[in-house]
Structures are given as C-alpha cells and as structure tokens.
Amino acid sequence: MASESTSPQSAAPSQSAPLSPSSAVLHSPEDAKMRERSPSPMRGFLIPSPLPTRRSRTKSATARAAEGPVFKGTCKCFSRSKGHGFITPVDGGPDIFVHISDIEGEYVPMEGDEVSYKLCSIPPKNEKVQAVEVVITHQAPGTKHETWSGHVNL
Predict the structure, then answer these.
(1) Which residue has the higher pLDDT, 34 or 90?
(2) How far apart are CA 120 and CA 45, in angstroms?
(3) Where does 28-107 have alpha helices with state H?
(4) Which of 44, 51, 104, 105 is 20 to 30 A from 27, alpha carbon to alpha carbon?
C-alpha cells in the first residue's frame, strides 16, 4: 500500500495530469448513432458571392453606372471589418447597400456622413441596387474619421 501513495502513476484519474491531445483516445457512447450526411453536389466547390464588387462587376454594368445620375444620401452605418454598409437616400427611399470596394477617397465613411453616389443593379435578377462611386461630401461634425491607412483625424 505504501507504493500507492508514493507512485504518481497510481493516482486516481481525477487527480492525474491531463492527457495530451495526441495520447487521448476518444470513444463515442455505444448507443450514439452516427448521422449520415447526404452527398452534396456542391461539396468541395467555392460558391461565388452574389454581390458584385468593383473587381467582379462587368464592364457594361460599370459603364451604365458611370452614365447614371448622381444621388445624395447619408451614411446610415458602415463596418470596415465586415466590408459593407448602408446609405439612407435624401429622398427617403429604402436603404442602399454599399461595398467597401466602391468607396472613393481617403476616409472611411462614418454614421452621419453626407455622401454622393451612383446606382448599379445587383445581378442575377437586377431587382436591387447598390451604391457605387461613393464620395464623402461632408463629414459628420464631432466624429473622428479614420483614413484607410489607419490614421485617425479629429
């Protein structure tokens, strides 16, 4: 019995050192059922984003947007980390999506900034629109604006 108290290997499992992931053996309960997955025809393929960015937009869509009228609105929200935001039009229509690749200028849009933009339809049905060639015309007063390089201007 003296060997039990002095040997670190004979300690109870709750008191022993944790096992490394490579030495641990995982067992599933005997009554657990493995869920079978149906084979997906899309497994292994990258699905393209439905939102056209400046890179993926066709030349004809870019030309149509460039010829269109310039609209004005206010930045409702913009998330640099997510890469998109929304603009509220001055005329009171529904909010318009804006992608990070469509913003012109050196500053990241902030809530309350006045912007000018053009519209481009979003495929495949071309029923919705997104803002392109977005330019900040007036920065919201009292907010710190960040440049794309990370500098903060007061």
Answers:
(1) 90
(2) 28
(3) 59-67
(4) 44
Structure tokens at 124: 């495949």
Note the pTM of the prediction, 2 decimals: 0.61
- Cβ partners under 8 Å of residue 150, min gap 6: none
For residues 136 and 109, what is the distance between their CA atoms, to the nearest angstrom? Answer: 7
Please give the C-alpha separations between residue 34 and each of 29, 30, 38, 42, in angstroms, as whole numbers. 10, 10, 13, 22
- Distance from C-alpha of 118 to C-alpha of 97, rounded to nearest angstrom: 12
Q: What is the DSSP string of 44-88?
A: TSPPPPSS--TTTS-HHHHHHHHHSPPEEEEEEEEETTTTEEEEE
By residue count, the chain amounts to 154
The percent of residues above 70 in pLDDT, for the chain, comes to 62
How many other C-beta atoms lie within 10 A of the C-beta of residue 48?
A: 8
Determine how many CB atoms are found less than 10 A away from the CB of residue 89. 16
Tokens at 87, concatenated: 């603009």
Predicted confidence (pLDDT) per residue in 16-41, tens digit: 555 555 555 555 555 556 556 556 55
State which amino acid sits at residue 138.
H
